[in-house]
Design a protein that fits this description.
Strand order of the largest sheet: 1-2-3-4
Shape: elongated
Number of strands: 4
Number of domains: 1
Order of helices and strands: HHEEEE
Distance between the termini: 69 Å
Largest sheet: 4 strands, antiparallel
Helix content: 25-40%
Structural class: alpha+beta
Length: 107
């Protein structure tokens, strides 16, 4: 009977240890966060339907400045837009979720 309780405690300890190890998330470096933010914004811009055909437009994200909040990143992007006879650079701001899946463009 004593041995059975010992095995039960060992299993509980093992499960608790595995759960605690599995719940730890890896913190991204500054460079990794910048790269993921740029990729999320580029994907967002390519999927949007503006006043022109986005399949004939090329977006290049030159740089990003961001503030990290608990549930999102507040971002300011320098975006280079290229079209057949059009080439310009501008600033766009957006709020991007921590999982990099939801992008809400401000202006």
């Amino acid at each position: 009977m004593k041995n059975m309780h010992r095995n039960t405690y060992n299993w509980i300890y093992l499960v608790a240890l595995l759960l605690s190890l599995g719940s730890c998330s890896r913190k991204l470096s500054h460079e990794q966060v910048e790269a993921k933010l740029k990729e999320a914004m580029k994907t967002f811009l390519q999927k949007q339907e503006f006043r022109y055909d986005t399949t004939k437009t090329e977006f290049a994200i030159d740089s990003v400045i961001y503030y990290e909040d608990k549930s999102f990143y507040e971002c300011e992007f320098n975006v280079h837009l290229k079209k057949k006879n059009y080439d310009t650079t501008g600033i766009m701001t957006a709020r991007i979720s921590r999982d990099f899946l939801r992008v809400t463009r401000k202006w």
